[in-house]
Amino acid sequence: MSAEQIDDGAHGAAQGEKALDRLVAFSDAVVAIAITLVVLPLVDKAMDAESASAFFADNVTGMISAALSFVVIAAFWRTNHVMFVHAHGYNRLVGRLQTLWLATIVFLPVATALDLAGPGTDRVGLGAYIGTMLLGGVILRVQAIALQRAGLSDRAPAPPLRHWIGAILMAVALVLVLLFPQYGALWLLVLLLEIPLGPLLSRRPR
Length: 206
Fold this sequence. Notes:
By secondary structure, the chain is mostly helical. It has one domain (13-199). The chain has helices spanning 3-11, 17-37, 40-48, 52-58, 60-85, 92-117, 123-149, 160-179, 194-202. It is globular and about 55 Å long.
């Protein structure tokens, strides 16, 4: 049995562009629902609030968490969208990874609600919140690698450190929030380091 046959058995036969379009359409629908669910805990609180000023005063942390989740889901969707724009099919491995990625997207509103339910400094809630983001980001990167190795993407691979810098910084934020939960989701600010580090790590050696 050849190496190609073994790989086909592990990853499955590649699906064509029509199947890819259906996968993307389904994924877009799931993401649209999830990004809407992010704000539902705030809607419930707004309905119970005595006044608008009281609602805004009591839910600053919650609004920040919801806004972060909204931005993260939107950023994940864009990354996933661009990845599949450059693809001309997918195999079984990529399909399974897509399903797992969608599970993280669907769970993120739950993690956001857990964070909103607490004081914003709960180690478990914060860990679930940032950990879900980390898992989703890692899956996207593994998907991109799987597509390229299967010859199903015409996108040039990024330098390894540039490809993983976002996930590395998210992992750092997760460790910091578990060690020092009193600072809450502020540890996500370490992700801003990707702005100066990204172009630096994208430089290819001459």
